[in-house]
Amino acid sequence: MLMINIQQFKTLQKKTSASFHQQKKLIKNIMLGKDVYCQQCNGILQVKFNKEATLAHVCCVQRCTDIKLELG
Ligand SMILES: [Zn+2]
Questions:
Q1: Could you tell me the maximum CA-CA distance found in the chain, to the nearest angstrom?
Q2: Looking at residue 60, what is its pLDDT?
């Protein structure tokens, strides 16, 4: 079983939450028709949704950006 230090976990949660909001903003911008670019390759980012629209998948062509975000 994987044990995780509680302090590490808190840091992780904080990071996740900050990037979660950032990612939501990013998806919103893409959906608004704005051009959003990958920070690594400067390729344009695209967003796809699963059938139920509960999961958004943001990626660039080269896949250095590959974000999956639950919208539920
Ligand atoms: Zn990229």
A1: 44
A2: 96
